[in-house]
Fold this sequence. Notes:
- This protein is mainly beta.
- The protein has one domain: Sandwich (Jelly Rolls), CATH 2.60.120.
- It is built from three helices and 13 strands, in the order βββββαβββββαββαβ.
- The strands form two sheets. Strands 1, 3, 4, 6, 9, 12 and 13 form a seven-stranded mixed β-sheet that branches. The protein has a six-stranded antiparallel β-sheet with strand order 2-5-11-7-8-10, covered by helices on one side.
- It is globular and about 40 Å long.
- 8% of the residues lie in helices and 33% in strands.
Amino acid sequence: MKFVPSLIALTGAATLASGSVVPFTESFDTDTSNWLSGSFSPTTWVSNGALDGSSYITTNVDLNTAGPFGLTLLRGHDDFDASGDAFVGNYLTSGITTVEFDFRHNAGVDLDIALRLASSANTPGLAVQTGGLVASGEWVHLSFSLFFGNPLMTLEGPPTPELFNAVMTQIGNVQVSSFRPDGLSTPLLVDFDLDNVTITPTPSSAALLGLGGLIATRRRR
């Protein structure tokens, strides 16, 4: 199944709308950082127990409500100032090629999980799947490559470089999504946990920009 759903600035604000984006990790150190559930309801902050033992956010979702193209579980949206808009901007010219995060669910069955990126208006967008199912009951680290031609990527429209560029130059909405498990026909309430959402450029881009290994890890202001 498929979901159909310039230089990196080193000074000033972390992101600008349709502007440069710096490497960043949202570790949810002290609160939910305005990340919401797929239904736009608040998520819950948990002080410890993540993959690295630290804090994380969680939400409870009925997977039986998923449509044919999946269900949004968690979202970091520009309109709600998620992570201080650190994920908002032009990924293409900033060289951002990877989004990764720590993730856990307790559905009791393996799930097909995807990352969705879109503009603040929620279109245009694209989705990238993991390439395998995510087991229940354990933390995993998931990584998604943002290269045009990635066979795990679905563009929401014509599969052209022009549409890919249109999405990547105006990211304002970061979503974690799942498909409904095969055969599910009754409510299935599932906890979904998220931590260490990270955007990074290619190593070559980072080296050219003098970034080395610097990653900006957000702490509550």
